[in-house]
Amino acid sequence: MSAFLKASLAFIQVILYITGVFTADVNINYGGGKYVQQEIFSPMAIVENGASDFVIVSPDNADETILTAINELQTYIEKISGAKLKIVSESEATPENKAIIIGETALENGVVEIDRESIFADGFMLFSDGNHLFISGANSRGTLYGVYTFLEEYLGVRWFTPQLEVVPENKNIVIDSNINRVVEPSFSIRRNDCIGTNDAHRARTKMNVSFWSEATEYGGALTYVLWDVTLDKLVPDDLITEHPDYFATTDEGTKTRDHVCLSNPEVLEVAIKNARKAILECETGAKYIHIGQKDNTNYCKCDKCEELYEKYGSVSAPTILFTNAFADALDDEFPDFTFTFYAYNETDRPPTDLSLRCNSNVIPVLCGLHKACRSHPLTECGSKDGNETFENLFGSPEPTIHKDFENWTKIADRTYIYDYTINFINTAQFFSNFEYMQSTMKYMHDIGITGYVYNCGDGHTAAFNELRNYLLCKLQWDVNCDVEYHMVDFLKAYYGEEAAPYIKQIIDIQTAQT
């Protein structure tokens, strides 16, 4: 850290303290449990003085993802210690070998029982017995995540940003000989696909959604045939000339391209036809397709749609009915497909008639958090009671948005959250959402939300976007992680050991003042 930068930070702090903008003592609870350092009770030396008699065992039928896991493990152990562990196949290895066994092999027979079917999503197991370390997941991607967790939590490797990794140097790699852990994610679907990321960084931070890249060598990813605003692709705007009835009716009785009329059965037929074409032409292995309205609130006011709003108690009703019928029509031909839709703007509230359910292969993507303050925990900022709420003060009609999320989980087997790292209701407000993140994500997990998708900030700005994105990845994997620990860990690597306390204090004060 340069003397100029240190002096500048100190000068700014002094001025702000003198003017009373900042106070010296701030204690912010960013949430989560206490970070547990991996301890060694009975040592198992993988590398001693830069040399190792351990090998890495690869399954005979290793797929591309398992091979990536093996190569990443070998590469980083060599970066740390200088020792390049030999890779041998399952059929070459013997139980007498000192080995790190990656994935499912016969070597685990009689040594460790790994119940892969009971491990949630892309979780994994770590097991050591003195001569062996087993890293194996519920699937290949889980095994890859197990390798990354081992490198991070036991060997000290960090991937803070796509450009910033930390690899310690140590000629000795020693772990405990009695590791026995099953590690599972909080959410089965996790996305924080910021500009500047890549397939490798996405995997290393355990994000498993990429709308544009399959990344098969990194375990694959949840990908879409069509994503985001898709109704203009399924029902093209130029159809309004010959078929104005396909499109939304305004309050004045005119037609607009701003939305389609979801209660019109011909609209459904057109959408199904175009979706089928898109699926058949898709060159990736995508198994998801999305129903997304345009980014406005000019929804259809025709008599039929109005009847459905009234019958089910929400403008979201036609969207649910439409997506269910859309999924039914395509399910026989594409049985492994999942269909998602936005609960956004006018459709973000679920029906009051909870008998209207989403099909088992239909998932609402809930976007209602754009109504929330997000500078404070969702459950502590007037979202549950009181009149002086952010939602009321800034024009949102519904101050109890938490009930919407809870009710969506009652009518859908799976639900995803689409959250933001920008405040679209009041973009001038400083977006210090560090105190909000852990408590809100834990709340969503506890009510049964199964996936979390972030529309995140990017780039090198004063908004701490890269720190925020790093923490979001940690929380999507584990809603109980120690946010303070990971924040300080990041700041030390990103800004330097000497600058980190200054930056941390600025974040604390900004959070307290927001």
Which bin fits the share of residues in helices?
25-40%
Catalogue the unreliable spans: 383-392, 394-398
> Which strand order does the major sheet show?
11-19-18-17-16-15-12
Structural class: alpha/beta
- Tell me the overall shape: globular
First CA to last CA: what distance? Answer: 29 Å
Indicate the CATH architecture of the largest domain. Alpha-Beta Barrel
How many helical stretches? 14
Radius of gyration using CA atoms only: 26 Å
Percentage beta strand? 15-25%
CATH class of the largest domain: Alpha Beta
CATH topology of the largest domain: TIM Barrel
- The tally of structural domains comes to 3
Number of strands: 19
Mean pLDDT: 90
Q: Major sheet, described briefly? A: 7 strands, parallel
Plain-language structure description:
This protein has 514 residues and is α/β, with parallel strands linked by helices. The protein has three domains: 1-30 and 485-514, no CATH class; 43-183, Chitobiase/beta-hexosaminidase domain 2-like (Chitobiase, domain 2); 189-235 and 265-297 and 315-484, Alpha-Beta Barrel (TIM Barrel). Helix content is 33%, strand content 16%. The chain is built from 14 helices and 19 strands. The protein has helices at residues 3-18, 64-81, 140-154, 199-204, 231-234, 265-281, 303-312, 317-331, 390-393, 401-411, 434-446, 465-477, 483-495, 500-513, and strands spanning 43-47, 55-58, 86-89, 99-102, 124-128, 132-137, 158-159, 165-166, 173-176, 180-183, 189-191, 224-226, 247-249, 255-260, 288-291, 338-343, 362-366, 416-420, 451-455. The strands form five sheets. It has a seven-stranded parallel β-sheet. Strands 3-2-4-6-5-10 form a six-stranded mixed β-sheet. It has a two-stranded antiparallel sheet with strand order 1-9. The longest helix has 18 residues, at 64-81. The chain is globular, with a radius of gyration of 26 Å. It starts with a helix and ends with a helix. The model is unreliable at 383-392 and 394-398 (pLDDT under 50).
